[in-house]
Automatic annotation (TrEMBL):
Protein name, per record: Aspartate dehydrogenase domain-containing protein
A family per Pfam: NAD_binding_3
Chain ranges of the Aspartate dehydrogenase domain: 172-219
One of the GO BP terms on file: NAD+ biosynthetic process
PANTHER family: ASPARTATE DEHYDROGENASE DOMAIN-CONTAINING PROTEIN, L-ASPARTATE DEHYDROGENASE-RELATED
Gene3D superfamilies in the record: Dihydrodipicolinate Reductase, domain 2, NAD(P)-binding Rossmann-like Domain
Ranges for domain Aspartate/homoserine dehydrogenase NAD-binding: 14-125
InterPro entries for this protein: Asp/hSer_DH_NAD-bd, Asp_DH, L-Asp_DH, NAD(P)-bd_dom_sf
Species per Swiss-Prot/TrEMBL record: Platysternon megacephalum
Molecular functions (GO terms): aspartate dehydrogenase [NAD(P)+] activity; NADP binding
Length: 228
């Protein structure tokens, strides 16, 4: 007797605010949408205790090939995309929640090749990129001449690397203005929206899309982490 179509099994990589939200939604509403939580991984496995059933905790990403999963959703850190993305694509579709990782050309090419070879799909969600579909359509038609994304945040919302961290201060300041490719390694957790814009406009890409990052202490600091 048929029991309907099989559910798509989804693995969540990362258990921060967004990862926890996705896990809750999959547990509460997944079945009605044909989805099932397959596993959850977090760098600090202790954070999973009492929140995720032991049977769904993946302790080591090296054991991913043993998992039965249709889609992996990464919401952890760009280094996870770099180090494990190709492995994920060898056995499942892969949604990159940290697309700043794709600013590294070797990583992008490796993942594209893994998707082609494995017959799976590499997804880049638009996230907070309003008008992403319009950008993509303009790029497809060959009419997109330029694109600049400006992001303004309270200094406490940033997690910066290198010289950018030293530019934070008590006054409003432009931290960076230039190609998004150069910005992604310096603010890997803060400019995923810019990276998504680069993927939506491949004719410009990470070298052609311009990014402007501004720190403004005058903004009200949000009580929760700023959007990725």
């Amino acid at each position: 007797m048929s029991h309907g179509p099989a559910r798509r099994k989804v693995g969540i990589v990362g258990f921060g605010h967004l990862g926890q939200y996705l896990v809750r939604r999959l547990q509460d509403e997944g079945p009605r949408h044909g989805l099932e939580l397959a596993f959850v991984w977090n760098r600090d496995a202790g954070k999973l205790q009492g929140k995720v059933p032991v049977s769904l905790q993946l302790q080591d990403l090296a054991r991913f090939p043993e998992c039965e999963v249709d889609l992996v959703v990464e919401v952890a850190h760009p280094c996870v995309v770099r180090d494990h993305g190709a492995t994920f694509l060898s056995g499942a579709d892969f949604m990159v929640g940290s697309p700043t990782a794709l600013a590294d050309q070797a990583t992008e090419m490796r993942l594209r090749e893994a998707a082609r070879r494995g017959g799976h799909t590499l997804y880049v969600p638009r996230g907070a990129l309003w008008g992403g579909e319009d950008i993509q359509r303009m790029d497809d038609r060959g009419v997109l001449q330029g694109l600049k994304v400006t992001m303004i945040k309270h200094p406490d919302s940033f997690r910066l690397e290198g010289a950018l961290r030293e530019r934070l201060g008590a006054v409003r300041a432009v931290l960076y203005e230039g190609p998004v490719r150069g910005l992604c390694p310096l603010a890997p957790n803060n400019v995923n929206t810019m990276a998504a814009a680069c993927m939506a406009a491949p004719s410009l890409g990470f070298d052609g899309v311009q990014g402007c990052l501004i720190a403004d202490p005058g903004l009200v600091h949000p009580p929760i982490p700023a959007p990725r």
